[in-house]
Amino acid sequence: MKLGRRRGLRFAALGTVLAAVAVPAYADPTPSTTTPPPASVTDVNRSLEQLQAEAAAVQADFAKATIAYTNALKQAQAAEAAAKKAEATAATSKGKADEERRRLGVITAQAYQLGIPTVMGTESMLWSLAPIAENLQEIADRQTAITQLGSTQVSQYQRAMAAESESHRLKADATSKRTVANEAAAKAQELSKQVQQKAADASAAMADQTADLDVASALSKQLQQARNQQAFARWQTYLTELAATKVTPPAAAVLKNPSKLPSGLAPLTRRGAAVPGVAAVTVAGRTVRVMSTETIRAVNQAFSLVGKPYGVAATGPDKYGCLGAARVAWQPYTTLPNLVGKVYPDYQAVPTAQVQPGDLLVMGSKSLGLVHIGIALDNGEMIAADESKGSVVVTTVPDNLFAVLRPTLGPPAKPQVAPVATSDAYAFRCGNTATSYDVGSGSWSWPLPDGAYEIGTPFGQSGSMWATGIHTGQDFPAAIGTTVRAVTSGVVRVERPAWAGNLVRIDHGNGLETLYAHLSRVDVTDGQQVKAGQQIGAVGTEGNSTGPHLHFEVRLGGDPVNPMPFLATGSASTGWGGFSNGLIPASKLCAIGSGHMLRCDAAAAYLKLAAAYRGQFGKSLCITDSYRSYGSQVSLYQRKPSLAALPGTSNHGWGVAVDLCGGIDKFNTTQYQWMKSHAPSYGWLHPAWADQGGNREEPWHWEFGNPASV
User: Fold this and answer.
1) Which residues form the NlpC/P60 domain (predicted)?
2) Which of 227, 245, 595, 692 has the fewest Cβ atoms within 10 angstroms?
């Protein structure tokens, strides 16, 4: 079980916004206008986060049933193939045995006619004669028979008996394999019925959730507004306390060295160390932090942007990208470079334990690159332009915090080299999470050996035992000492947090990590390269554990996601805008005509593509499918399990996929070739798996990717 932070709202109820106070002159931010928060959350059935957690649990349960059915189906297919092969071999052997027996009969008949003694008894003679009883005319050329009988009678008898014995053995083997195949088929059929029932249950559960989605989405927006207001009120309170000390915030240069502070100011310490760039003053027994005037101005400017809409790479004044908000906050004191990766080398990094309001927080990893930036506040929060929320917001500092930078300290004392950004970094920009991640079919092994575990607490289950309110991994109860394996190749980092006891974290590159917790033994070392299936430790019950089990997590860009679809398919859809696959409220989608809807950026690109298509062919794009709810994905899977994606993994569920018709649904037509040539410039791609000769040929299926201009 995992105790830790997770990006997203963490309100159990709304607190009262602090009363208005007198604010000093240097406190001049004006946050964007927001509607008053709701008095409480008790007037709605479930919050958006609760809905998403419930959806994840339903999806994990369905994936578990599907995995069992898929494995059984594979076993049944393998058993059927083995049975057919054995039956074919047995049939061939039976034909060979019959031929050897027929030859022996001919020799026996010839010997009898010639009066040559035979080594066979009467019963064996009758057995040998049975195949040729009606074909004695085959016996001819007595002289040839005379010369052959002496040397071949005994050896032919032995060959015939051996062939008969082998035929019986192979027939018994074929019968046994047929029994196994029939039993496997029956098991697969039974599990198929269970999957059908699970599908019906999941569909009903999703229908129930869909009714609450728009209400919960609106509530979530109100809760975010309340969180923004609460953070601003806390900042105002601090500024008022600072004003009461009669200390005028000094310039950044004055506070740079804690050992050379002006009279009346003392170093601010954290964990026994003085914090550079900040000071403290004690008035009437109360210690108040003193920040530089430049830092206070930066935080004020950051608050003035809260609520402004998000825009890719936007720098204002109407929209802001993730770096755009940070750049505006720190101007005119300094102008940040135009890429997050370029910010890191230019400003002094400080220990994360010393983080202070105004600091630049850069998120990412060594294998992924730097993907997000925010302005630090107290209480583990920051102000950042967040793509998933669609605006500049106050949000929790995510787990993938890479470094803390303090602009007022100037350039770094030692060189700071930013990790190289990968091609997948774009998918994790600005607080968003990639909607899908393909790890390659068959490239994942399960973390525990077959038959050595049970499937326990699923991802997304809610409960007070987890700090986030939900379970962030998938549990596999197993005996202490059971081998734990890496699911795929990567680089190891061994950690020992209190919640996990012994934890192995494997970085697989491009923002993908897996975690293995509560281990009784760790068999790998920091920095070690491991392969899929390699032993990395053993099951235990260390840390915050309710019993022997493996707590297994998959993280993308630092966010925990449902591991079961990964284990089931080798790929998974993971999240967008805080919503689950197939559970995006209608208010977050945009219409493209004929009742079809897509994610709004995909919809805008689709409409431009459709206009170009109409200009070329004089008619509209023919479309049969667009956004697909989780319930409709389940329904399709029920009807076409061999063709449909596992529910919760389809890009239709993110509103970024369409199925087209009107000629595009056939390879090599004029319409299809036009799409292949022109659609990518509008961000629409034909995935490799759907190409002619791909894993599943679907000329009609197109997905929204990254436009070439981005």
Assistant:
1) 292-421
2) 595
Higher pLDDT residue, 587 or 595?
A: 595
Range 283-291 average pLDDT: 92
Q: Alpha helices of 471-627 — where are they, by DSSP H? A: 563-569, 600-617
Q: Over pLDDT 90: what percentage of the chain? A: 37
**Residues 523-564 pLDDT 10s:** 999 999 999 889 999 999 999 888 999 999 988 877 787 787
341-374: pLDDT as tens digits? 899 999 999 999 999 999 999 998 888 889 899 9
d(CA 477, CA 422): 36
Report how far residue 534's alpha carbon sits from residue 488's, in angstroms, rounded to the nearest whole number.
Answer: 8
Contact (Cβ atoms closer than 8 angstroms) between residue 24 and residue 487: no
Distance from C-alpha of 670 to C-alpha of 686, rounded to nearest angstrom: 15
Q: Exposure of 316 by Cβ count < 10 A (0-12 exposed, 13-18 middle, 19+ buried)?
A: middle
- Express each pLDDT in 33-56 by its tens digit: 444 433 333 333 455 556 666 666
Under 8 Å between Cβ of 400 and 363:
yes
Beta bridge partners of 514: 506, 554
Query: How many C-beta neighbours within 10 Å does residue 338 have?
Result: 12
CB-side neighbour CA atoms (13 Å) of 24 = 19
Burial 107-142 (b: 16+ CB within 10 A, else e): bbbbbeeeeeebebeeebbebbbebbeeeeeebeee
Give the integer Cα–Cα distance in Å for 17 and 706. 41
- The structure tokens listed for 240 are 């008022």
Better pLDDT: 28 or 450:
450
Residue 587 contacts by C-beta under 8 Å, 6 or more apart in sequence? 214, 217, 218
Contact, 50 vs 638, CB < 8 A? Answer: no
Instruction: Work out the pLDDT band at 102, boundaries 50, 70, 90.
Output: confident
Dihedral of CA 273/276/281/286: which sign?
A: negative
Q: What is the pTM of this model?
A: 0.62
Task: For 219-284, give the DSSP string.
Answer: HHHHHHHHHHHHHHHHHHHHHHHHHHTTPPPPPHHHHS-GGGPPTT-EEEEETTEEEEEEEEEEET
The set of residues, in sequence order, having a beta carbon less than 8 Å from that of 67 and lying 6+ positions away, is: 564, 567, 568
Distance CA(42)–CA(506), nearest Å, equals: 41
Percent of the chain past pLDDT 70, that is, above it, reads 76
> Beta-carbon neighbour count of residue 50 at 10 Å?
18
Instruction: Give the bridge partners for 659, in sequence order.
Output: 625, 701
Helices vs strands, H then E, count in the chain: 11, 27
Report the distance separating Cα 694 and Cα 690, nearest Å.
6
The amino acid at 87: E
Residue 317 preceded by cis peptide, ω within 30: yes
Cβ-Cβ contacts under 8 Å for 246 (sequence gap 6 or more): none
Check residue 115 and give its pLDDT: 60
Number of neighbouring beta carbons within 10 Å of residue 564: 28
What are the structure tokens assigned to 293, written together?
């005037």
Residue-wise pLDDT for 186-211, tens only, equals: 888 888 777 777 777 766 666 666 66
Please tell me which residue, 107 or 281, carries the higher pLDDT value.
281
Q: Which two tokens stand for residue 334?
A: 């300094």
Q: Name the packing angle between helices 48-114 and 630-639 (round to 10°).
A: 10
CB 523 within 8 A of CB 502: no
Of 41-45, 181-185, 441-445, the poorest mean pLDDT is in 41-45
Residue 361 parent element (H or E):
strand 360-365
Which of the given ranges, 99-108, 112-121, 696-705, has the highest pLDDT on average? Answer: 696-705
